[in-house]
Structure to design on (807 residues):
């Protein structure tokens, strides 16, 4: 019953990145067996969680044919705001909540500029990336914010364990399931794909395209701010330069996971795999003692090869 | 050029599309290719011109076995293919579109705009087209885009020209002009393959006809030796009833009332009303502004002034979501650009405007959606292997049926149909007419824009004729004739 389009190439589309990840695991383990030790794997999961959270949000945006360059700055600004609130004595949980909401708001601003302002997402978020980063520097006066108290709950977020798993990894897994459900099971997800597939037809089909876009950029802002909260807790401080170039890692993960930059095609599971590939590369190359300069070269090359394979199959 | 295709087989995955097709083309003839939606006509021509590879069978050109690697090779061998799905670069100008991939350049690779314009002018004159060269192609109407495609094909000096439903978006006058050009071409020995669902055209212009059904050739005959009825009968494999079903209108109160609708340069002071259960036909020449009026009514484009009343309440429609909220539905004339999400499955496309009912809580009930899609597929005889088939893989006519299916489910109060049966075979057309009757029985009002006069006359309770952006006249069912419509449409009275 399946036609050509969902035939062989479809299987590669689904499992190609996963295969690459497994291969990567095997190669690194052969070169350095300590890679597979439980401690290192847990470490790997914790390291990837921040990129994962950002990349999940980015997936929605890229599916609509957009892009968000400002996520790294949103992470920094919301992190600084959270830390500031905690320093001034606000309850840490409340501070995180407010900080995350402020991240949502920053995303919503992006969304409004893109949809109502009818500006290209690349340009809008390039500008807000600079603005949010600038505001972070203004707010922190370019210095880290420290002394944010010793609330155990807050410490847990970045450094604790839950059922033997690092809390950031748990957050990542929960976020994955919630967003997977949102993307693949709800009308919101369907609309996301529809807009990326054909915005004009979506509009005429009665979809509130602008509203959906605002929500999606808001979601990306939220995810960046949650990542910001984790990072703040891990570092026990807010860094004004936090999150720089995180948008690139997130975009790379989404693309590695097989989502098309022109929108309409892709899956959240692919992004998870993409995040893990990047995380594994980082972690593995560190273990193998590859210099960080070469690491960049390798990462770039992997992205090129992945996209090339993606082209070949279609 | 003489072409002989023998025993052609082709399957896409499990879907056997061609199963032993015979087709021949003589130099200087116009050969009609007919068959129901999904019979395999476009696929056969895609194989001939190298886009798809056949699984079995042979293709001989001038007695020599040939098989083109790709479309470029076929083009170089002297074949031009005007595809059913238009290939327009919407952001580029008319001129750029005409010469895409074939730009004229000087020794340094610099574009020779003057020469290109001169060449384009020649062709445009021949086809009687008046389109500014620097207009963005995306802003042209579907009919104009179709003319660009035809002009593009004529410019290649091809020996074989394949036309896949070239007239679906053209008006009678343009069709006449096209036929003249076609006759001129055959005199020069050019062979033409002509795919169409319009019987009158086939009998007016073609020398021979090949009828296909379910991926097989049923028969090839000289046009002189066959009849309208015989062709239809071979196409659908059974006798067909009348072209238009009996229609008895039960009119209710006015649902939609439009007054003084104006958009500068496009249309002016448009006023009409539609009653529950009524079919209002909107006729007019291409470019008269019919589509533009409907687009504005639906909020796709903004109006400058005017008043819209739905069920007695004045409403403001500024975007399509407003229109949908007030119970309007819009089947656009351009299915690829505005009607469908090509990467979505049949089910997802049908579900899209109905998400409210399939996902009342936000959670999509895929099973319900699937059942509904299955029902619509059956109702409209959509030829698809399943509800999960990607819509881009359906034949053109079947895609059109899905566009219609999509909107019927929303139970609109007013259904606007812009060229609803474009590219649909005779059997399926009747299905759609019956469906329209059924919808009006349920109290839905239908506004049908169509360039096919028989359809307008056969189905409408009342007819509005648009001429140069104004309503030139209104005709009642009892008094209407095709001649009266044409007179109003061309500015006479
Ligand atoms: N690329 C493709 N992948 C899978 N199936 C395809 C593809 N192209 C065509 N088909 C299938 O082949 C069948 C024949 O399609 P084709 O486009 O040749 O029909 P057609 O006779 O031109 O119909 P129409 O009158 O509607 O244009 C259809 O059932 C269609 O779904
Ligand atoms: Mg076709």
């Amino acid at each position: 019953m399946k036609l050509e389009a969902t035939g062989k190439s479809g299987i590669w589309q689904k499992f190609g990145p996963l295969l690459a990840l497994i291969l990567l695991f095997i190669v690194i383990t052969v070169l350095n067996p300590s890679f597979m030790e439980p401690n290192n794997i847990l470490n790997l999961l914790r390291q990837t969680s921040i990129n994962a959270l950002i990349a999940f949000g980015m997936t929605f945006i890229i599916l609509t044919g957009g892009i968000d360059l400002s996520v790294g700055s949103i992470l920094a600004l919301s992190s600084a705001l959270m830390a500031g609130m905690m320093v001034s004595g606000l309850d840490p949980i409340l501070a995180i909540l407010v900080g995350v909401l402020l991240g949502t708001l920053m995303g919503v601003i992006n969304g409004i500029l893109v949809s109502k302002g009818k500006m290209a997402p690349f340009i809008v978020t390039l500008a807000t990336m600079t603005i949010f980063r600038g505001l972070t520097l203004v707010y922190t006066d370019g210095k880290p914010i420290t002394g944010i108290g010793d609330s155990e709950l807050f410490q847990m977020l970045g450094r604790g364990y839950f059922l033997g798993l690092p809390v950031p990894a748990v957050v990542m897994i929960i976020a994955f399931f919630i967003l997977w459900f949102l993307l693949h099971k709800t009308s919101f997800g369907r609309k996301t794909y529809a807009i990326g597939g054909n915005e004009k037809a979506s509009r005429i089909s009665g979809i509130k395209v602008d509203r959906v876009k605002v929500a999606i950029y808001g979601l990306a802002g939220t995810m960046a701010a949650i990542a910001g909260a984790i990072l703040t807790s891990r570092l026990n401080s807010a860094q004004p330069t936090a999150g720089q170039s995180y948008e690139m890692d997130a975009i790379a993960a989404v693309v590695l996971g097989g989502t098309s930059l022109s929108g309409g095609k892709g899956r959240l599971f692919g992004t998870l795999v993409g995040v893990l590939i990047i995380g594994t590369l980082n972690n593995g190359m560190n273990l193998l003692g590859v210099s960080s300069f070469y690491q960049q070269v390798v990462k770039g090359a992997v992205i090129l090869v992945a996209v090339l394979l993606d082209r070949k199959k279609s | 050029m003489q072409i002989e295709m023998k025993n052609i087989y082709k399957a896409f995955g499990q879907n056997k599309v061609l199963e032993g097709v015979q087709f021949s083309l003589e130099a200087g003839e116009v050969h009609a290719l007919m068959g129901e939606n999904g019979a395999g006509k476009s696929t056969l021509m895609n194989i001939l011109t190298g886009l798809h590879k056949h699984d079995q069978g042979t293709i001989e050109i001038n007695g020599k076995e040939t098989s083109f690697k790709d479309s470029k090779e076929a083009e170089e061998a002297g074949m031009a293919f005007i595809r059913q799905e238009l290939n327009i670069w919407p952001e580029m100008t008319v001129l750029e579109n005409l010469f895409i991939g074939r730009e004229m350049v000087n020794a340094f690779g610099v574009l020779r705009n003057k020469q290109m314009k001169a060449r384009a002018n020649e062709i445009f004159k021949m086809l009687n087209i008046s389109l500014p060269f620097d207009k963005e192609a995306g802003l042209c109407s579907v009919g104009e885009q179709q003319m660009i495609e035809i002009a593009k094909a004529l410019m290649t000096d091809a020996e074989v020209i394949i036309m896949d439903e070239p007239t679906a978006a053209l008006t009678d006058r343009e069709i006449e002009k096209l036929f003249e050009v076609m006759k001129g071409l055959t005199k020069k020995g050019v062979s033409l393959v002509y795919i169409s669902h319009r019987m009158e055209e086939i009998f007016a212009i073609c020398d021979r006809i090949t009828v296909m059904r379910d991926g097989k050739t049923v028969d090839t005959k000289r046009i002189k030796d066959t009849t309208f009825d015989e062709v239809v009968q071979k196409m659908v494999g059974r006798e067909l009833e009348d072209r238009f079903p009996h229609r008895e209108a039960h009119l209710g109160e006015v649902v939609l009332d439009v007054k003084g609708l104006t958009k500068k340069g496009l249309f002016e002071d448009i006023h009409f009303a539609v009653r529950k259960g009524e079919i209002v036909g909107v006729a007019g020449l291409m470019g008269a502004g019919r589509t533009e009026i409907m687009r504005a009514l639906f909020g796709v484009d903004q109006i400058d002034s005017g008043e819209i009343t739905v069920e007695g309440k004045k409403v403001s429609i500024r975007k399509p979501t407003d229109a949908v909220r007030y119970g309007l539905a819009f089947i656009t004339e351009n299915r690829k650009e505005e009607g469908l999400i090509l990467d979505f499955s049949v089910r997802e496309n049908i579900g899209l405007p109905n998400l409210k009912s399939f996902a009342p809580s936000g959670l999509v009930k895929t099973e319900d959606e699937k059942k509904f899609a299955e029902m619509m597929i059956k109702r409209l005889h959509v030829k698809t292997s399943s509800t999960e088939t990607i819509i881009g893989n359906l034949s053109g006519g079947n895609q059109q049926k899905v566009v219609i299916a999509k909107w019927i489910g929303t139970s609109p109060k007013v259904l606007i149909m812009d060229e609803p049966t474009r590219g649909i075979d005779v059997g399926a057309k009747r299905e759609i007419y019956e469906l329209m009757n059924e919808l009006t029985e349920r109290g839905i009002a239908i506004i049908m824009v169509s360039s096919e006069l028989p359809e307008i006359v056969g189905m409408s309770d009342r007819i509005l004729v648009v001429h140069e952006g104004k309503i030139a006249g209104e005709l009642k069912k009892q008094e209407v004739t095709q001649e009266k419509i044409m007179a109003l449409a061309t500015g006479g009275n």
About this structure: The first helix of chain A runs from residue 8 to 31. Residues B 41-42, 84, 164, 395-396 surround magnesium ion (ligand 2) (CB under 6 Å). The two ends of chain A are 20 Å apart (CA to CA).
